[in-house]
Amino acid sequence: MRFWLGVTDKSWFLQLRAAKPDEVNFWQPSAKPAAGFLEPGTPFLFKLHYPDNAIVGGGFFTRFSVLPARLAWESES
Q1: CB-side exposure of 41: number of CA atoms within 13 Å?
Q2: In angstroms, how far is the first alpha carbon of the chain from the final one?
Q3: How many angstroms separate the CA atoms of 9 and 46, rounded?
Q4: Looking at the DSSP assignment, which residues form a beta bridge with residue 5?
Q5: What are the CA-CA distances from residue 31 to residues 7, 55, 64 (Å)?
Q6: Digit-coded pLDDT (tens) for 9-64
Q7: Contact (CB, 8 A) for 45 and 55
Q8: Of 30, 27, 34, whose CA–CA distance to 73 is shortest?
Q9: How confident is the model at residue 2 (pLDDT cuts 50, 70, 90)?
Q10: ∠ CA 61-3-15, rounded to 5°
Q11: Whole-structure pTM value
């Protein structure tokens, strides 16, 4: 089984956990797709940076969109 492991910041994870959203926007600073196999339904795991190095959550990938950074940040609120 293939999956994607997204490394994230602990404070961002704690903020999202408190908000209990139905979905999250995981972005990267590049317009290139994360991986060729990342199709809708692919398991997506969230791992904290060092020193925690723990998988703290997960979900399923739905889509990839190219956005200007400003729009990506606005979609987080």
Answers
A1: 1
A2: 33
A3: 10
A4: 45
A5: 17, 25, 10
A6: 999 899 989 999 888 877 777 766 666 668 899 999 999 999 999 999 999 988 87
A7: yes
A8: 27
A9: confident
A10: 55
A11: 0.71
pLDDT exceeds 80 at position 76 = no
Per the listing, tokens 């020193």 go with 51
Contacts from 51-60 at CB under 8 Å and sequence distance 24+? 52/10, 55/5, 56/13, 56/17, 57/13, 57/17, 59/23, 59/24
Q: What is residue 1's predicted lDDT score, i.e. its pLDDT?
A: 79
Give me the residue spans of the domains in the chain: 4-74
Contacts with 29 (C-beta within 8 Å, 6 or more apart), sequence order: 69
Closest listed residue to residue 57, CA positions, set 69, 74, 10, 2 = 10
